[in-house]
Amino acid sequence: MAIIFIVEDGTGLSDSTSYMSVADFKQFWENKGKDYTSTTDAVIQVALNNAADWMSYSFRYKGSITKDTQALDFPRAGICDRNGRDVSYEVPADIVKATAYLAQYEVIGKFLDVVQVTGVISKTMGPVATTFSSSIAAGSKQIKGACGFLADYVSNGKVKRGL
Predict the structure, then answer these.
(1) How many CB atoms lie within 10 A of CB 138?
(2) Whole-angstrom distance, CA of residue 76 vs CA of residue 65
(3) Which pLDDT tens digit goes with each residue over 14-70?
(4) Domain segments of the chain: what residues?
(5) What is the rounded distance in angstroms from the CA atom of residue 163 to the CA atom of residue 118?
(6) Are the C-beta atoms of 29 and 36 separated by less than 8 Å?
(7) What's the rounded mean pLDDT across residues 118-140?
């Protein structure tokens, strides 16, 4: 049986499984000096699918889905990025970047299903806002990096969920 791998295009597909294509994953990491050309597409597809799943069951997001039938959490209505730009009705670039970091975690031989995120915290006091993470898998720069990109989209500023 073949892997089902469908990249969300920003229209709220009912059958999408990932926020990023294999080609975009390879290019993202090549731009950072990492080479995944020898990694099979199937391995990367599974990792990208798992990243999207992990993002769905680990967090609740601001705004609302744009279609009742969409498979993934994005696109969403009523959301802005960290710079205040309206990113409703699209898959924000930060979500795609988080997907790349999480998928890399699996491609290097670790597994997202054992990762627990116990806190992503956003604080805003007047014009000053800060976001930080706590109790994330020790030594995991991929998970910390992904959570940094996700923090602006997580509802209530703080999420505590055990996996």
Answers:
(1) 6
(2) 4
(3) 999 999 999 999 999 999 999 999 999 999 999 999 999 999 988 899 999 999 999
(4) 22-153
(5) 10
(6) yes
(7) 55
Asked if 20 contacts 96 with a C-beta cutoff of 8 angstroms, the reply is yes
- The per-residue pLDDT for 110 is 75
Q: Within 10 A of 66 (CB to CB), how many other CB atoms are there? A: 17
How far is residue 48's CA from residue 45's CA, in Å, rounded to a whole number? 5
The reply to whether the predicted model has a pTM over 0.85 is: no
| CA nearest to 4, candidates 46, 41, 37, 32 | 46
Which token pair is 62?
Answer: 């601001």
Q: Are residues 158 and 122 in contact, defined by beta-carbon separation less than 8 angstroms?
A: yes
**Structure tokens given for 70:** 């969409």
